[in-house]
Amino acid sequence: MSCPICKKETVERYRPFCSKRCADIDLGKWFGGDYAVPSEDPEEAVEAMEELEQQASRLH
Ligand SMILES: [Zn+2]
């Protein structure tokens, strides 16, 4: 089984992720998708998503 964020081996403590960092990124994705995107402040939502994508890409 591999981490859904960065595809490294998972660590039992953080399953299904390899680290707390990846777990946090995944949580941020859900949070961003479900919570921040609706119309209140679209620019801020886009910035938040870009930040998450940058965090994810640094792990590769
Ligand atoms: Zn990972």
Automatic annotation (TrEMBL):
One of its GO terms (biological process) is regulation of DNA-templated transcription. GO terms for molecular function: DNA topoisomerase type II (double strand cut, ATP-hydrolyzing) inhibitor activity; zinc ion binding. Keywords: Metal-binding, Zinc. Binds 1 zinc ion. The keyword Cell membrane does not apply. The keyword Cytoplasm does not apply. HAMAP family: DNA_gyrase_inhibitor_YacG. Belongs to the DNA gyrase inhibitor YacG family. Interacts with GyrB. This is DNA gyrase inhibitor YacG.
